[in-house]
Each structure stands twice: as C-alpha cells, then as structure tokens.
Give the backbone structure.
Amino acid sequence: MLSVKNLTKQFKSGDTKVVAVNNISLSVPQGIFASIIGKSGSGKSTLLSLLGALDKPSAGEIIVDGRDIAKMSDSRLIDYRRNKIGFVFQSYNLIPNLSALENVMLPMEFAGVKAKAKRLRAEKLLREVGLTKEKFARKPTRLSGGEQQRIAIARALANSPKLILADEPTGNLDSATGKIIIELLKKLAKIEKTTIIAVTHDQGIAHEAKIKFTLKDGKLVA
Ligand SMILES: Nc1ncnc2c1ncn2[C@@H]1O[C@H](COP(=O)(O)OP(=O)(O)OP(=O)(O)O)[C@@H](O)[C@H]1O
Ligand SMILES: [Mg+2]
C-alpha cells in the first residue's frame, strides 16, 4: 500500500547540511499498524511530513496506492492530503470554537459531502472512538486530553483515508490513556482498513505495532 524507495531529505541552513532522512526504503501493507521509533532528532517527524506530502523529498520515491506522491502536481497533492491521508498530532490540533461533532465534520465539508451524510458519518466515528453522546456538542476545552485525541482520530478518519500518520499521538497523555488510544488506533486500522503509521518515543507502544521501524541519524536501522 505504502512503499518508500531511497527516500532522502536534506536541509541546508547556511553552510551546514543536515540529512534528516537518509536513503530510507520501507513498505507497509494495507490495514497495518506500524510504528516509527528513534531518538530526538533521528528524523521521525521529517519522514512523516514527507509521507503526508507536507514537505518535498530531496530524492527518492513515495508510492501510495500505486502513485508516486513525490511526482504529483501541487493540485493533486492538495487532494492527496485532503482525501487520502489523515493526520493525528501530539497536541490534538482541534479547532477550539467548533464542537466535537463539528470538528469531525470539517474535513468532509472540504470534500463536499452532503449535510446529512456528513453528520451521520461524524456521529458513527465518534461512537467508534468511544466518545459518549452527551459530549458530541462540547468544545475541545471542556474535554480531557484523551477525549480530545479520540476526536482528533475520528476527524483523521472522516474521509476514509488510506493512510493515517500520527506524530507522538500519546505524547501528552498519561500512560494508561496512551495505551487506550493505541488500542483504538489498532482496532481502527482493522475495521476501517486504514494503514496507520505512528511515531512514538514509547518502546511499549512500539512493541504493540505489527511492524516497527527504528531510525537513527536519519537512517533506518531495524
Ligand atoms: N525545517 C528544518 N530545517 C532544518 N533542519 C531541520 C528542519 N526540520 C528538521 N530538521 C533537522 O532534521 C533532523 C531531524 O529532525 P526531526 O524533527 O525529523 O526529528 P524527530 O526524530 O522528529 O525528533 P523529535 O523526537 O525531537 O521530535 C534534526 O537534526 C533537525 O534539526
Ligand atoms: Mg518529531
């Protein structure tokens, strides 16, 4: 489903060069939960940004669903980011003045989904991530971190993306809640047939994944 070949990202600032991602090749089948682990600065977030087309590679291929995203035009890339990928961040990144339900409906709005279908899917997803109904109308600030991350995951799933990219999704949560969120991601990878790639510092979480990639100085070491 996802295959990366000889992917490299180099940053230049003045005279110094940083090879943040160094000639990485890997592949992840559809519906699998994979983790990326590695020390701070090892290139995890950079790799995720490349996979999500938030940044362009210096070299290499990123084949998603048979198409090389490194070669796509900018307008195709907008469509790719909107409809093929879901993002989950450490800091949830929910829109503060929208309710839980409205946050989940938002990506479908951009995709032009009709009002009724949008609401039904958002409610279904919020139920799937385990948010209780009385909280659907609440704004993020009146919900716990774990609940906010559940909503962010529901939002990431809204347009049925092929791939979910999660950067430290449990980084702001206590370890028990973090575990629940990871179990949830694993369950969703199965039922929504979505490939999930999660960056984590937590060895325990990484071990939960079907495939585990370890980065060191931009290189894949395991
Ligand atoms: N936009 C940028 N410009 C220049 N250098 C960058 C840029 N983004 C990242 N880097 C460098 O690339 C390397 C990898 O950074 P990256 O953010 O991918 O690490 P990380 O593994 O996600 O670390 P952390 O665990 O701290 O989040 C680091 O040396 C970083 O300083
Ligand atoms: Mg990072």
Observations:
- The two ends are 20 Å apart (CA to CA).
- Residues 44-45 surround magnesium ion (ligand 2) (CB under 6 Å).
